[in-house]
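User: Could you write out the 3D structure of this protein bound to S-adenosyl-L-homocysteine? I've included everything you need below.
Assistant: Certainly. Input first, then the structure.
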Amino acid sequence: MANLALLNRRAPTAAVAPLVRAASAEREPQLIGASREELAGYLAAMGVSERQVAMRVAQIWHWLYVRGVTDVSAMANVSAPVRDALFERLPVGSATMVAEEVSRDGTRKWLLRFPDRGAGRPVEVETVYIPEEGRGTLCVSSQVGCTLNCTFCHTGTQRMVRNLTAGEIVEQVVFARRRLGDFNGAERSAGGPTAGRMVTNVVLMGMGEPLYNFDNVKAAMAVVADGDGLSLSRRRITLSTSGVVPLIPRVGAEMGVLLAISLHAVRDELRDVLVPLNRKYPISALMDACRAYPGLSNARRITFEYVMLKGINDGPADARALVELIRGIPAKINLIPFNPWPGAPYECSAWETIEVFADVVNRAGYASPVRTPRGQDILAACGQLRSTSQKLSARERRATAP
Ligand code: SAH
Ligand code: SF4
């Protein structure tokens, strides 16, 4: 296993006062993922004059997100005293790659380690890159573990450790683009911002429930979508939720990204079991939130994800009920063959069963691509992600305290 320190990290020396008194350990600042306003605040606190702050922010932004530099010393047009101050006080990022696996089909999975930031020990999350014809999708994690326990999901078997910070979410994108050589030729512009890029789409479908980390996800997506930086259009970002109904309107209104709903069942009795959050927000409430989703149109459809579980939710009657349920909603239905993981209590539906199901959905006028399992050989497919990170108990924490 490679263990590469990817970014210039340097513990602040005792002589250097903390730049910003972090509200909590979780908010330890770093350059990657900070908003322009936060960066301006950091620079002002370092004594950069008001006159210069906006210019320096723009320069740093360009180096971080157009050039993908790992080191402030490479920020050639930033004056040496500002570079030195940054080097002393503010790391570029905090990710360390622990492992990289490449699937037979070209899918790549990285295990990234971040500092503990309140969890008691460093945490690890998985990020997956899925190359396809003419596009490349990066699947990013939003939490370490998940508080929800969907019974078919491997992540759900891992206890929630902590939310990822905005910086850690953005860093997954920056890391992947660096690793894929996607910052090379950064200055090219012909053909639009994503022409020739490896990462053209981002999906919040990795570990965790993004809506239970709303503020950090929102801040991270603002950085990822920024037109002078990573420049990924909000129409190329999809947030998948298991159905946190009260926050769905805010995804459309405040993030403006595409929405995917992990539906998986058309009756409350079954969805209560597969997606236990359904007991709090049942199907009818979820459908109301979808119908009212801000910005919904034929060009901006909602994706309904439906995992195919043998003998559980995969009959033609389920397919007919599904199209009834979403009638009137501009939608795509994404049929996901169940990806097994060690100890999983389900099996994937037979291929013919999936075809019959897809046929019913197609005939009702909905596109229903069956999501080809990608990276299964490296446990990188949907729902197979899990890291060994665990939260320390208070007792364990006391025992490991210096
Ligand atoms: N927590 C969010 C996003 C992460 S899960 C959510 O639940 O939507 C991303 C997608 O993978 C979800 O649709 C999820 O239901 C699905 N999934 C989880 N486990 C799976 C498995 N074992 N096989 C196939 N899909 C799975
Ligand atoms: Fe969490 Fe999504 Fe997995 Fe459910 S499917 S346990 S919400 S990550």
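DSSP finds eleven helices and twelve strands in the chain.
User: Perfect, thank you.
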